[in-house]
Write a structure and sequence with these properties.
Largest sheet: none
Distance between the termini: 41 Å
Number of helices: 6
Helix content: over 70%
């Protein structure tokens, strides 16, 4: 089970780096908000955990060390929770509506001469993120305004 959790965390990190951070997608997918929150949590939570734990010990003494450790571990778990959700979502299969939309987007990119393969039968959100990243790099903004 531990190895599966570590693989999910790694998959979440790769998915976070793959997902195109474009504001237009935030209306349709929660990934934009989760990626932003997870990136912020990765930067801020270790320091906040240290501050919260140290302040508990400073204010209430060594008798509150278990509570201080618990609070610090809670703050440290927040970015891990985001990465776990992203890893789970990356491996989740696409619904048929998104599958058809991504195949249409892939065909449009192929028509423009961009090397982009259509989605297979076992397509997941990670595959969609790869196509979306290529599409946002290559297509003009008028296409995305029509959404």
């Amino acid at each position: 089970m531990t190895i599966k959790v570590l693989k999910t965390l790694g998959e979440g990190r790769r998915y976070m780096k793959t997902w195109p951070m474009v504001k237009q997608l935030s209306f349709y997918f929660p990934e934009y908000r989760v990626v932003r929150a997870t990136m912020l949590a990765i930067k801020l939570m270790p320091g906040l955990a240290l501050f919260a734990g140290a302040s508990q010990v400073y204010l209430y003494g060594w008798a509150f060390l278990p509570q201080a450790i618990t609070i610090a571990l809670f703050f440290l778990s927040l970015p891990i929770q985001g990465l776990l959700w992203l890893g789970w979502r990356a491996q989740h299969p696409l619904p048929l509506t998104l599958f058809d939309w991504c195949n249409a987007l892939s065909n449009k990119l192929q028509g423009m001469g961009v090397a982009c393969s259509p989605l297979g039968a076992n397509a997941c959100y990670r595959d969609m993120a790869i196509i979306l990243k290529v599409a946002f790099e290559r297509l003009d903004t008028s296409y995305w305004e029509e959404l």
